[in-house]
Amino acid sequence: MRFPVAVAIALCFALPATAHEADLSLDTATQLLSAANIVSAPKVVDCTLSEGAETSCIQFAVKPEPANHAAGPWCPSNISDGADQGGIWLKDGAVLEADGAFFTILADLYDDDEWQLSDPATGAINVTSSAEACAAAARPDVDPAYNNYCVQCLTDYVDPDLVITYTIPLVPVAASRTSPINFGGAGVATNGIKLDGPAPVDAILDAYTIAPFDDCGGHVNLHVGYHFHAVRNCLEVSDLALDALVVGIAMDGYLITENALGLYDLDACNGHIGESYHYHTGADGSNQILGCLTAQTGCAVEGEGGVFDATQTSRPPRP
């Protein structure tokens, strides 16, 4: 039996569902999320989706921290540090090692002499080292005091009581238009971690900062916890008779599988119909897990339980 699963975070727009539909059972949800840091096990609730469709959803709550792998490292402390002391950075579709040497080539890499993240005398790299520094450097309007810093937010900085509740349509529901991947994210991984939209690389670079991802493609935001901007072989996968292994559940109710490496003719959202409609993740360096979303979305909210109406939760995260 195949299970194109439905999951959703509130988004402002949605696109017509184009696929065969199948129910998501509690057993299947539990199976898919077996590696997640579950706070409240999946249950069925009544819900309203992003365009107002009233339906039934699976709901579960998770802690936004990976239970199946360690988070980090992100920023090396010295230009002499190897790749094991840093994470990765994405540029022009390529994955670059954010090791110590990487921080010596930024002026050439971006053709701008203003880049200077390390001390010429000691090789020490400027790294945010507190929750306060993280908050000041990781916000959209970067505090100028943290220009030329490697921005590193640790999981220890996140509220230990932070819980995210996902409300998931059992069956994908057609929408009037596609949804861009905005603050709601692309989906949820099999380990319960948010699969986010593209990282705001331009805003990061404008402040002469680098905010690396770890080798799994994730980093930390103080308000949503650890989350992914790339999917890089760190997830428990599931074979549900699709053409690739399942790595997560999309916000509009379809399964997300591993990168197809050009094997299939995918639509603009990275989806296609095989055994059933599903998505494939974008290439590691693309800064785009999914291109868009196909069906109406549910919602994800901070806290355990919460709003079941996605039309009431379409708002950007706090700065």
What keywords describe this structure?
2 domains, eight-stranded mixed sheet, mainly beta, 319 residues, disordered C terminus, disordered N terminus
Can you offer a commentary on this structure?
- With 319 residues, the protein is mainly beta.
- The protein has 2 domains: 26-65 and 161-191 and 235-312, no CATH class; 71-157 and 199-216, no CATH class.
- It has 4 helices and 16 strands.
- The strands form 4 sheets. Strands 10-11-8-7-12-13-15-14 form an 8-stranded mixed beta sheet, with no helix packed on it. Strands 1-2-6-16 form a 4-stranded antiparallel beta sheet. Strands 3-4 form a two-stranded antiparallel ribbon.
- A hairpin with a 3-residue loop joins strand 14 and strand 15 (277-280).
- The longest helix has 8 residues, at 131-138.
- Mean pLDDT is 87; it is low at 1-22 and 315-319.
Largest sheet composition: 8 strands, mixed
Fraction of residues in H or I helices: under 10%
* Count of folded domains: 2
Structural class: mainly beta
Cα distance spanning the termini:
43 Å
**Widest sheet, order of strands:** 10-11-8-7-12-13-15-14
Q: How would the global form be characterised?
A: globular
- Count of distinct strands: 16
Fraction of residues in β-strands:
15-25%
**Which ranges are low-confidence, i.e. pLDDT below 50, for 5 or more consecutive residues?**
1-22, 315-319
Order of helices and strands: HEEEEHHEEEEHEEEEEEEE
The DSSP helix count reads 4
Rg calc: 19 Å
Mean pLDDT: 87
